[in-house]
Write a structure and sequence with these properties.
The complex is a heterodimer of chains A (307) and B (286). Chain A has 11 helices and 6 strands. Chain A is mainly α. The radius of gyration of chain A is 23 Å and the shape is elongated. By secondary structure, chain B is an alpha/beta fold. Chain B has 9 helices and 14 strands. The chains are: A mainly alpha (307), B alpha/beta (286). Chains A and B meet through strand 1 and helix 1 of A and strand 1, helix 2, strand 6 and helix 3 of B. Strand 1 of chain A pairs antiparallel with strand 1 of chain B, so a sheet runs across the interface.
Chain lengths: 307, 286
Amino acid sequence: MTVSITTTTSPDDAVVRRRAIGQLARIESSRMLRSAPIWIGLALTVLLAVTGALSEEEWSAQKYNSLVPLSVFPLTIGAFIAGVRSGNRDRSHRRPPLSEEAALDGDERAWARLSSLLVPVGMAALAMLVIGVASRIEGGFWIGDSPRRTDTALPSVFELVQPVLSVAVTGAAGLAIGRAVRRSGPAIVIGGAALFFSGLAYWIWNSAYAYSTALMQIQPLEVDLPASTNPSAVPEDWLVNRPNEYSGWRRSIVHTPTVIFHNLYLLGLVGLFSGLALRHRPRARMIAAGAAVAVLAVIAQLAVSPH
Amino acid sequence: MSPVPAIELTALSKCYGSKVAVGDLDWSGGQGVIGLLGPNGAGKSTLLRMLATVLAQDSGSIRVFGLDPAVADERLAIRRRLGYLPQEAGLYRSFTAFDLVDYVAVLKEITDRTVRRDEVRRVLDDVGMTDDMHRRIRTLSGGMQRRVALAAALLGRPDLLVLDEPSAGLDPDQRLRLRTVLSDVGQRGTVVLSTHQTDEVAAFCQRVLVLDRGRLLFDGAPRDLATRAAGRVWVSESPDPGAVRSWVTGDGDIRNIGAPPTGASVVEPTLDDGYLLVATEQDVRA
């Protein structure tokens, strides 16, 4: 057979291509919406938020930091697992990617999968919106001990954004890891453990480095005060916690500059992991830019740290 | 616009380390069904992967529809007219057959939803998967999964269909259906398929290539391959030491190929005989 040479790409082709990428993103989002880990994560998030809101507070800031950001932790795990499974689809079973020869290649598929993370991110945003509105209606939370105590502390918008970004980070990390490994099972177990320690239990190390690099930065920050502290003598706008069996006098500070730089750090991680989820351009740029933003944001947090 | 062959290979080579998978191959071909025969490791899958634009050559050139797969825009233009069935299709096991083929249809830029759904149903029907199209891939047998992968390759009525052992795992009925589908595609475009089944090549290929160790040993019509063994196949009651290859037939006779001794009972050669003779002569030369 002889055939005629056809033109290669035209403006019409570009339109078709964009439309196909959009449809692929919709399919991926629809599959994300049907992903069990996402719904289990959301259900546990709602459960944690409701039980956290209804329980009696036993210590200062208990509700404050259990609702924002910790209640969203199950959703971050759900997004991670769903991300690993989605990213691993073209890597599992030692087989080549599905329809390698198709017009939409690996990077366009990766972009579609990255865009599907808007599903868990949207869920986290909705959860934070509900918590933000409900806490304002309720009047706020308890931080500090009398006489330097408040019962009207409210998480700022920056604090409410942080758990949303955390879900984006773990989802993108899941996609990047799923794309890199042959078997998703061990990656989920190891990644889940890493998220537990960096997201939920980082306070074990209780240092500025830990809360600057943690997935979920718990506010208020606690600054140790001298043993001779007289709570009545400290500035009036300070919130102070009395000594307990674990520590001495401490000042509780909801430190907005740290929160903002931590959000920037999370944005950097989103860029870094999104770049790692790609194969070609702009992979290197995204990795470099994401890593640079993350590192600079950590330095900025340490620089403004009240410690 | 000048007419060009659908496929044109010039001094094409691909190596894996020191092993030559495809060596200095020159070939061109066009409309019809082209069968690729050769032993395991002959370089068939490597050649097909290069034709399918998913593997780059080390040297030489490939032109598909006159376009160079090494150039991004031209590769995309080729891919828009291409269907490929690899040996291992990498199907998403959690998808249903329908959803999987629909997903591939989007990857192939079939963007009109109605057209796409109709096309998905058509190709699933072509491979006999209509009744099972809502079952998850993981619940399908190997043969059914193979048919789903074939359906995905058929999407969009490609001008070039590259199939790596398409009949593997299919029962005789499904093979018959496959022949019909591929013959239909071969009427208007090009089908290149690898197989170990010489009867398949004889049944519906217009052209056959025999490949071994990356070298092209034969290129011609299936009957010409059979004719290569004319006068060189004979049956005997015991293995003939002068034969280059002997085997027992279903009748209990010994079938030999090579230079028949005087008075030998020479028989009509089959495609199998031709293929074995070509491959064996290559072995002897090597």
